[in-house]
# Entry
Amino acid sequence: MMNPVVKIDIPEVKKLYSGKVRDLYPVDEEHMLIVSTDRISAFDYIFPNGIPGKGVILNTISSLWFKNMSFIKNHIVEDNFSNFPAPYSNYPELFKDRSVIVKKTKRIDFECVARGYIIGSGWKEYKENGSVSGVTLPSGLKMAEKLPETIFTPATKADIGHDMNVSIDILKETLGNKDTELLKEMTIKTYEYGRSMLEKTGIILADTKFEFGYYNGEIILIDEVMTPDSSRFWDLQKYEVGKSPVSFDKQFIRDYIDTTPWDKNSPPTPLPEEIVIKTAEKYGEILDRIKNMFN
Ligand SMILES: Nc1ncnc2c1ncn2[C@@H]1O[C@H](COP(=O)(O)OP(=O)(O)OP(=O)(O)O)[C@@H](O)[C@H]1O
Ligand SMILES: [Mg+2]
# Structure
């Protein structure tokens, strides 16, 4: 296997920011470059080793969605490496196929989550109090069951610590009614579009997380879109209500972690080779299906 790209440094420019997966680089006043590395994180910790090719896969998947969703404005300015400016154009081994040039926005500090099925933190909350992020759900739902309608369950983007589900009222307090309703509408619409597209390729899009930002006073879609890092992708053929679904996404890593003694509160040890290979395969499979879907 090729070496994973986990750390990017070039002498000509100083990066603006390094996230768990992406690094941001300056372009000009209004634009920046986002490069998706091969880093993988779980429970907010980055693993010391990466998944070779993961960044390329994530970047390609997001670009395909952005390009095919004319109903929503997004941050992309250039996704073709051949048109990138120097110094980035001098480093194809670091930036090619894994970077985009985007509009710099004022990020909205909430994760906009849409759920069509009940699982994960939503399932946990539902079992405790019958609701998720303040949305009351019908009683008697089973694990992984499809919801009667898509719900909007925002979460805080915590600088330190884990993100927390919050009610829509918290968004209204910070962003106002109008923009909150707009976010909800865009989140549900984009999720439902993605879900209906993916269904044709045998994938259930159980839930997904979007990020938005303000650009010239307008709310636009930023960051990554409907990737296996930001979404739950289930195998439609193996789906059964009441059972933990077979997934193509990061859940595979989380399930592996549950078999290890890691406490999720300290830097983790490297992922074993077989888990790295398996994860690369799952991500690759998703990319192939999405590519075919848009063909
Ligand atoms: N167009 C944009 N304008 C402003 N910020 C953006 C834009 N697109 C993405 N971002 C931000 O760039 C960063 C991408 O890095 P990455 O996805 O690795 O972050 P992360 O570790 O998941 O999360 P965090 O957002 O908590 O740093 C995120 O902080 C994201 O909010
Ligand atoms: Mg992110």
Notes: The two ends are 28 Å apart (CA to CA). The first strand starts at residue 17 and ends at 18.
